[in-house]
Amino acid sequence: MPIEVLKCPSCAAPVPPEARGLVACSYCGSTLSGMPESTPGPGADVPDLAAERWNDRGLPRVGVAGRLYVLLGKLGEGDGSDVFLARRDALLTEMVVLKVARALADQDLLDREWSALEALSRSEAKGSDYFSGLLPQRVGHGPLARADGLARKASVFRWRSGFQHTLEDVRAAFPDGVDPRTAVWMWKRVLELLGWVHASGWAHGAVLPRHVLVHPRDHGIVLCGWSSAARADAREPVAALSARARPFYTDELWAGAPPSRAGDIAMSARSMIHVMGGDPVRGTLPLAVPEPLGVLLATCADPSEPRSVIDDTWELLERVAAAARAAFGEPKFQAFKMPGWA
Exposure string (b/e) for 124-158, b if CB count within 10 Å is 16 or more? Predict the structure, then answer.
């Protein structure tokens, strides 16, 4: 029976179709786990959800874009979607993140997100080879096939090891706020990615704490939640505003302004103020935050006056580095660990 060749989840190199059992990727050396084939061959649009499988009995299966996935558990939920951890039910399994629209009215948001990520993956801005890898990695998109026949739009993204905490989780774990030196590297990673996004002609539109994924050990940052992203010259308001995240939007964005560089920067600053234990609306911070850093954060968080607007991300990165140096001296690695991490 013909089968579709998977790509290595680590480096995206093709894996030979004759692979069985434990297979080493010929490009990066990663060990992949071979599994009995139980997905339809090429050309099958709807997987056979009722077919007996060799394991994982009792776990629900869904189909997206002609591929079958086993749902392993729920990772979280947004205002209009639910997010699940799943695995590909195929010859070589891979872990994925499945994002499913909760309401039919929100299905267009998944389409918007997919289109934005697809466009950014083709960016020719400086650093694209690196920064495009920090985007959610697309696997499949389309109607969700379920055994109960309930139709929903879904997107499938490659799962990333270690990126399991958002800035919301960080604030919950550290209710009094993280060390300001930790917040500095987090903000710098966010701004570096935003700098590339802006250079590519786009704005994210929803730089909220729950959309910033953190890798504590490796000091990595990934931005998700791209359904509000828009080209820099767009004139339409933000596609979806979250009432529970109101403190992180500027008044202009909430009133109908389109996504912008200044809006992204302001939201990033408010997210950092929040994770340090401060008030993102007033721009107030704990006394432990040194003045140079606190002033810069407050300035970026409130772009209501033209003199305080900072819309050049790369310029801001230099100012963050200068403020951190003035507050803490020469840069040093700041270890950070979330509860439960080894």
Answer: ebeebeebbebbbbebbbbebbbeeeeebbbbbbb
Question: What pLDDT, in 10s, does the model give residues 173-225?
Answer: 999 999 999 999 999 999 999 999 999 999 999 999 999 999 998 999 999 99
Phi/psi for 260 (5° steps) reads -150, 165
Q: How far apart are CA 331 and CA 339, in angstroms?
A: 25
Tell how strand 95-101 and strand 152-158 pair up. Answer: antiparallel
CB 275 within 8 A of CB 265: no
Q: Nearest-CA neighbor of 280 among 305, 301, 252, 254?
A: 301
State the Cα–Cα distance between residues 171 and 270, nearest whole angstrom. Answer: 13
pTM: 0.83
Query: Contact at 8 Å (CB) between 84 and 98?
Result: yes
pLDDT at 170: 96
- Whether residue 266 contacts residue 303, with contact meaning beta carbons closer than 8 Å, is answered with yes
